[in-house]
Amino acid sequence: MGKLVIVGTIAFDAIETPFGKTDKILGGAATFIGLAASHFNVDIAAVSVVGGDFPKAYLDLLSNKNIDLTGVEIVKEGKTFFWSGRYHNDMNTRDTLVTELNTMGNFKPKVPKNYQNADVVMLGNLHPLVQSNVLDQMSETPKMVILDTMNFWMDSALNDLLQVIKRVDVIAINDEEARQLTGEYALVVAARKIHEMGPKYVVIKKGEHGALLFHDGHVFFAPALPLEEVFDPTGAGDTFAGGIAGYLAKTGDTSFDNMKNAIIYGSTLASFCVEKFGTERMINLSNTEVFKRLMQFKQLTQFDIELT
User: Quick check: is 306 in a domain?
Assistant: First the structure.
């Protein structure tokens, strides 16, 4: 059984979309990543921090998904990371209303000793120095290190970000971030420049328009499944990354052909995430539902053609 370490926020979210709004609900990058990866029967550890206000029921929920929480620090006198956002009618843009770092402001990750030899490390969207600290704790070089980041760190901690990018195998960012990081508008050129920074694989997310995988001059495109309704996009990118990380930890195969499969799994899981508020859909998602939707993806992308 492959080992996967996930580092990121376990948090409260409050979300408003054209379909409604929530009070504080379970969220955070590590939560979405872990729920997605739990579909692959791998040994998962989450590394994060929460406050004394974080319900035991949420911790039990994650434990019941076979996510090891020994790397999750509970600061009893502290408060849990909180994010609130409002989505516009197109569901592609949002306004951040509140960000409270709380315990995450002084987060010092501690990878459990028995996970310091993990096959796959998934670095959720955190300060690059925190991400580097995690890699420093690994006793063996992982088969695959996956990095998520965002434009905020490109603005505020670019040098630190470039140092951690050198150390990863896969970077997953959206098209706007890829352009900002490289100064190139054409995504093929942007991906090539990011390759030169260190990663073997560059995954560029395009939201409802799917994702692109770049490797050594080759390109693969995974569409997003057309859905009748997108209820809440929160966590879709993290769910996508969790699907990739879980699949790679399960298969142990880091080839380009297998990365294609990982991207499709990630896209499949992300398509479920957006169907309900927050983590609600992922919590109750069955493997049978995942398999059926994988078949839909296959039908969406498979064709025969005679070349004359």
Answer: no
- H helix and E strand count, the chain: 11, 14
Domain extent, residue 225, equals 3-301
Overall number of domains in the chain = 1
The answer to whether residue 9 sits within a structural domain is yes
Q: Identify the pLDDT of residue 123.
A: 98
CATH code: domain of residue 109: 3.40.1190.20
Buried b (16+ CB within 10 A) or exposed e, 278-298: bbbbbbebeeeebeebbeebe
Q: How far apart are CA 120 and CA 244, in angstroms?
A: 10
Q: Contact at 8 Å (CB) between 74 and 280?
A: no
Is 30 contained in some domain?
A: yes
Beta bridge partners of 147: 123, 171
pLDDT tens column, 253-282: 999 999 999 999 999 999 999 999 999 999
Closest CA to 34 of 7, 72, 1, 2: 7
- For residues 136 and 128, what is the distance between their CA atoms, to the nearest angstrom? 12
The span from the CA of 125 to the CA of 278, in Å, is 17
Is 90 exceeded by the pLDDT of residue 1? no
Give me the sheet containing 218-222, strands edge to edge. Answer: 67-75, 43-51, 3-7, 120-123, 144-148, 170-174, 201-205, 211-215, 218-222
What is the C-alpha to C-alpha distance for residues 150 and 276, in angstroms, rounded to an integer?
Answer: 24
Q: Are 242 and 35 in contact (CB under 8 A)?
A: yes
Rounded Cα distance, 173 and 44, in Å: 23
Residue 27's φ and ψ, nearest 5 degrees, are -155, -160
End-to-end Cα distance, the chain = 46
pLDDT at 113: 97
Distance from C-alpha of 3 to C-alpha of 185, rounded to nearest angstrom: 37
pLDDT band at 228 (very low <50, low <70, confident <90, very high): confident
